[in-house]
Each structure stands twice: as C-alpha cells, then as structure tokens.
C-alpha cells in the first residue's frame, strides 16, 4: 500500500512539473480583496492556494494588500493572476484596461441566486432606525473601490435623501473607515453613527445572515447582532466575480477555473471559506453581468 501511495504521489508530482514546464509558469499569484484583517484573509484562502499549487505544480502565493486598489493595480500590472473581487473593483480594472482580466465565475447563494446587498446599519441603542435618523450624524463608508461599501450606496442613498454624500450636506460627516470589518467595528464601538457593508440578506439577522461581512464579524466574535439594527438596504447587486488575468496560458486558465468551478462539490468547506460564508458553489459569469456597474463607476468619475 505504501508503494502504491508513493507511486501515486510521484506521478502527481511529475505531472505537475510537466504542466509547469510546458507553459513556462514560474508562479501563480492570488490577490485577496480587503474587508478584514490580512491574516484572516490569508487563512481563509489557504485552501485555494494549496489546491492551485498542487494542480499547477508551481509556487502559488497569496497577496493581501492593505486596500482594494492594491489588488486592482496588481491585476493591471500582471503581479496578481486571480482574485475574487467586488463588481466595482472589477469595473475599475475593466475601465483602465478592458483586456486585462475576465470574470469567470460567481458565487451561488444558498437559495441559488448570485447577488448580494449593500446594507446600512446602526447601533440598536442609538435610536436610529432609518436614513432619516442619520441626518447630521457620522456615516461610515468602507473603501472607495468597494461596491457595497461605497459605489452603490453613494448612488442610491442620495436619491432617497435628496442630498449629496458630502460631509455637512445631509450627514454631519462622511468618513472612510478602510474596509468592511473596520466599518462594522466603528459602528459597534460608537466611533461612527452608521455605516454600510455587504450581505446576502438571507437567513437570520442574529447570525449576520448566511454570508457577508456581518457574518464574518459574528463568527470572529467581533459583534453581537442584537446590538445592531438595519436602517437601509440597496437593490440587488450583481454577485462578486472571480476574475482571471487574460494573459495567462489557456490551459492554466482552464485548470484554475475548473478548480473553483467544482469546489462546491469537491471541497465545500474551502468554497465557504473563500466566499466569506455559506454558498453552494460557483457558476460561470461574463462581463455582461457587470455593464451597469461599469456605467455607474464611469458616471461617478465624471
């Protein structure tokens, strides 16, 4: 039995080495978008790193830049090959270089849908129950390149309050916190009066729903959802795409796509870890799903 196992391992190693040699790939690099502390992001994606490294037979590395722009620039500059990112971050890459990357897959929610929501929230004991209660108070965004933490609320909320998101216009102050986890902690600690983050909106509020930044914060012991309350919810946002650099050899692209595409069946725990909560797997997606996000981002820049 030991000889059989050893032979199987040797065959796998030789196949991986042959794959790498055939395509002259020296390494593969996975970028992890912000939203929680770097070590947690690295830990959540370690299973994906191992799977890709085993399949490609080359060193596979994780990169967790301090902000969203780090992943965006890495994809544009060719120092990052793959990332699961928000639609707005993908739009930023597409606007800068339409040929740089392609969306390949999207997360499937527990009910079979693929979208998610930007959600506004405040402390339950603050007396704030809606956006009207946030007038003259401090409102927290996450990151300028976040879809749910900036782009969508900055488009939808002004239409509801008939005011801009500039500090002093409706809200007393509008502040960037640095990411989703930072926004949740800032609201929970009373450093800002309200903020926005992302969620699938399914399951129970007390659990932080089934996946998203609130669920991660609950699972990490950072918040008790009974201390928070929902004050606003966006329209459904197209799901977060897994994007892959177009300059990679086609066989590499096919192999990596296959690993993630089947992860819901082959390694559900890993699928949940990299997705940020309960999912059933991943489905194919194309650029067409994100044209409205590209348009919204272009409109904001004009």
Element string (H = helix, E = strand)? HEHEHEHEEEHEHEHEEHHHEH
Mean pLDDT: 89
Calculate Rg over CA atoms: 20 Å
The appropriate CATH architecture of the largest domain is 3-Layer(aba) Sandwich
Distance between the ends: 66 Å
Give the overall form: globular
Organism: Octadecabacter antarcticus 307
Signal peptide: 1-20
Keywords: Signal
Protein name: Putative phosphate uptake ABC transporter periplasmic solute-binding protein
List the helices and strands and how they pair.
Layout lengths: L1 H22 L4 E5 L5 H19 L3 E4 L4 H10 L4 E3 L2 H10 L4 E8 L8 E7 L14 E4 L5 H15 L11 E4 L3 H10 L4 E6 L13 H7 L8 E6 L7 E5 L4 H12 L1 H4 L1 H8 L5 E4 L6 H11 L1
Parallel strand pairs: 1-2, 1-3, 6-7, 6-8
Antiparallel strand pairs: 3-10, 4-10, 4-11, 5-8, 5-9
Helix pairs in contact: 2-8, 2-10, 3-4, 4-11, 5-11
Q: What does this protein look like?
A:
This protein is of the alpha/beta class and 302 residues long. The protein is built from 11 helices and 11 strands. It folds into 2 domains: 2-107 and 240-301, D-Maltodextrin-Binding Protein, domain 2 (3-Layer(aba) Sandwich), CATH 3.40.190; 117-233, D-Maltodextrin-Binding Protein, domain 2. It has helices at residues 2-23, 38-56, 68-77, 87-96, 147-161, 180-189, 213-219, 250-261, 263-266, 268-275, 291-301; strands at residues 28-32, 60-63, 82-84, 101-108, 117-123, 138-141, 173-176, 194-199, 228-233, 241-245, 281-284. The strands form 2 sheets. A 6-stranded mixed β-sheet has the order 2-1-3-10-4-11, with helices on both faces. A 5-stranded mixed β-sheet has the order 7-6-8-5-9. The longest helix is centred in the first third of the chain and has 22 residues, at 2-23. The relative contact order is 0.18. Residues 1-14 have low confidence and may be disordered. Belongs to the phosphate/phosphite/phosphonate binding protein family.
